[in-house]
Design goal:
Layout: H1 13-19, H2 24-37, E1 41-44, H3 49-61, E2 66-67, E3 73-76, E4 90-94, E5 105-107, H4 108-119, E6 127-135, E7 144-150, H5 153-162, E8 164-165, H6 167-173, E9 180-185, E10 202-206, E11 211-215, H7 220-223, H8 225-241, E12 244-246, E13 249-254, E14 260-266, H9 273-279, E15 281-284, E16 288-293, E17 296-300, E18 305-309, H10 319-326, E19 331-334, E20 337-338, E21 344-345, E22 356-359, E23 362-365, E24 384-388, E25 405-414, E26 423-425, H11 429-437, E27 441-443, E28 455-457, H12 470-480, E29 488-493, H13 510-521, E30 528-530, E31 533-535, H14 538-549, H15 555-561, H16 566-581, H17 588-602
Parallel strand pairs: 1-6, 3-19, 4-5, 4-10, 7-9, 9-11, 14-25, 25-29
Antiparallel strand pairs: 2-3, 6-7, 6-8, 10-11, 12-16, 13-14, 13-15, 16-17, 17-25, 18-24, 19-24, 20-21, 22-23, 26-29, 27-28, 30-31
Length: 622
């Protein structure tokens, strides 16, 4: 490798590879990063098998990953203080007078000055890795090129799994491409090779420059630029260009006669998103780009891998994922328990809890407590796995199709203990956007720093990632559905509880909900019209429970699960209207739809709830 005390020597291999792209903006960005971070050397990956293997080897040689017993499996540990998205350290950089409600912002010039100072000289004594990727299938009209710069072989190894290497595409595209740009440094490391200065962790998104800077962090959600950090940039592009960049899975659901119907779905973290995607023909578990193409909505997954939460995955509830995690092949585990024989254990895995091992807290044993006396679990609640999509046996053959797939249904899920029914269809696109998607509330989980269990307002499961004002986001969503015949919108809730606190549905019930939604988009089952939207009828669910799960479904279960919780919904409408009334730019249509829903519910009388069977006899109005 060539030393780079003052930049990249023009005779270095790294320079030659970058120059071959003919893209002055790309070259300038990398050169600027070299000048700022002062690495000892620069490695530009072409995505060749040799380059990919080099990065894998670097992660092991540097101790950023540990080799496990199963061939291809490795383990990474983050600092105990750096194991989730850090909201308080993440900000979108905005210009004078620009406001983004509910999102942490910082004046652009101040943020750039601060993060530049933190990155200065941060890569001395290290190698800088440069990777060029495609967000989406290569050569697709949906796709965008991006460049990731990092001093972490673990981060680049993860990016190589999660995204399509696109160096050759960059050379072909030449100088006309506008790159999304990402610069990351782990910063100073402690004796265990983990980021030391967590108090100086910064993740700043410069939407004007379409560049993300992150420093003093290793956790994937804060350091892997093309993941949720890129989502902030692509949402802004999408809003300006008339398409949707969403926090959604993309999967095909099998219907009668060999039919496959494609759905996208947005769920807050740990609300059943990945497990739902895995029930169908998988195209992606986390992100989707949606565009109108020839009169229909089509979608692609910008990713080529899965960075998923591992908590609770077991062979009974998640057989496809479990099979991947237990089989030879490329898998990076993070913050799980490493056993003495090189195996791993995570919370909820098959088998008994081990007696001891090594985890994010160091040496671990059953009964270990932290400094405050709180039990230390075997694995962190936000422990993760990173694997290529091609590892899954249910991968849809169209996952890499540049044309994408036609989307017939959009699902919004929530972790809601007391209000939303397990399954609901909106009256139309606008009603679904307003009363389901934009009104989504969900219990906070371990994927975000903060107190778990609190209910959070999280429209489209995307609030953390918005880079445009929420009012504008809602307005553009409504406009998107007016261009033709849009997909149906559904709401699901796998976490409804009864009066005794127990969940009213089993994990397997979502198979039935998917089957019903697949039939609905083809108008093969009739719904039950209620004030909050369209519910499945008991007789259809009874038939589907029998055919899909070989299980009996009782009238009592249906009556409890699908009761319209009138008082809870009216409370929710009040909360949501107050929130949107406090911000600007929300279209009048939003409030009109919410008011109509309120009036329909009030027409039922001063009741706490109404049985779904009541709506077999009386019409709810519209």
């Amino acid at each position: 490798m060539n030393p780079t005390p003052n930049g990249m020597p023009r005779d270095s291999n790294a320079w030659r590879l970058l120059a071959a792209t003919g893209n002055d903006d790309l070259i300038s960005f990398v050169e600027g990063a070299v000048e700022l971070c002062r690495p000892d050397s620069v490695f530009v990956s072409t995505g060749s098998p040799e380059d990919l293997e080099y990065i894998r080897g670097e992660a092991l040689r540097k101790g950023e990953e540990l080799r496990l017993r199963t061939p291809g499996h490795t383990l990474h540990f983050d600092s105990p203080l750096d194991q989730a998205r850090a909201r308080d350290d993440t900000a979108i950089l905005v210009g004078p007078g620009e406001e983004l409600p509910f999102v942490r912002t910082k004046p652009r010039e101040d943020g750039l000055r601060e993060v530049t100072e933190l990155l200065k000289g941060s890569m001395r004594g290290r190698q800088m890795y440069v990777g060029i990727y495609s967000l989406g299938p290569l050569g697709s009209p949906f796709s965008m090129l991006a460049v990731q710069i990092t001093d972490s072989a673990y981060v680049m190894h993860s990016e190589n799994i999660l995204y399509r290497s696109a160096y050759s595409e960059a050379v072909r595209a030449g100088g006309g491409v506008r790159y999304l740009k990402f610069l990351h440094s782990q910063g100073e490391l402690d004796e265990m090779g983990r980021s030391r200065n967590i108090s100086k962790r910064r993740i700043y998104i410069d939407v004007e420059g379409e560049t993300v800077y992150s420093v003093n962090t290793q956790y994937g959600g804060n350091s892997m630029g093309l993941k949720k950090l890129a989502l902030r940039l692509t949402i802004r592009r999408a809003m300006r260009e008339g398409w949707l960049s969403e926090h959604m899975f993309l999967a095909g659901v099998d219907g009668p006669g060999g039919r496959v119907t494609y759905f996208t779905g947005a769920f807050p973290s740990m609300s059943g998103k990945t497990s739902t995607a895995m029930l169908g023909r998988l195209l992606g578990d986390d992100l989707a780009y949606l565009r109108w193409v020839d009169g229909e909505v089509r979608a692609v997954n910008p990713e080529a891998g899965v960075f998923g939460i591992i908590e609770g995955i077991n062979s009974a509830d998640d057989p496809v994922i479990y099979e991947v995690l237990e089989s030879p092949g490329e898998v990076i585990f993070s913050n799980v328990l490493m056993l003495s024989d090189g195996g791993v254990y995570w919370n909820g895995k098959d088998g008994p809890v081990p007696d001891s091992g090594i985890n994010f807290s160091g040496e671990w044993h059953r009964g270990k407590v932290d400094q405050s006396g709180k039990p230390v679990p075997p694995s962190h609640p936000n422990a993760r796995f990173t694997v290529p999509l091609r590892s899954f046996r249910n991968l849809d053959p169209k996952y890499d199709d540049p044309r994408g797939v036609r989307v017939d249904g959009v699902i919004f899920g929530s972790r809601d203990p007391d209000t939303a029914p397990p399954l609901l269809e909106s009256f139309d696109w606008s009603h679904g956007v307003v009363t389901i998607a934009a009104s989504l509330e969900s219990e906070r989980t371990a994927a975000v720093l903060g107190k778990s269990g609190e209910m959070e307002f999280n429209p489209m499961a995307n609030l953390d990632f918005l880079s445009v004002p929420l009012g504008e986001y809602i307005a553009r969503y409504l406009e998107f559905g007016r261009r033709g015949s849009p997909p149906r919108i559904f709401g699901v809730n796998y976490f409804l509880r009864g009066s005794d606190g127990r969940y009213l549905n089993s994990k397997s019930d979502k198979r039935v909900w998917l089957a019903w939604m697949e039939l609905r988009v083809h108008d093969e089952v009739e719904p039950l019209r209620t004030p909050i939207g369209l519910l499945p009828r008991y007789e259809d669910l009874r038939r589907l429970f029998s055919s899909v799960l070989a299980a009996e479904y009782t009238r009592e279960a249906y009556g409890e699960q699908f009761a319209v919780r009138v008082s809870k919904y009216l409370e929710k409408i009040g909360r949501i209207v107050r929130i949107y009334s406090s911000i600007g730019g929300v279209p009048r249509e939003f409030f009109e739809i919410m008011d109509a829903q309120r009036r329909r519910l009030e027409a039922l009388g001063p009741v706490e709830r109404v049985s779904p069977f009541e709506f077999y006899r009386r019409g709810p109005g519209r």
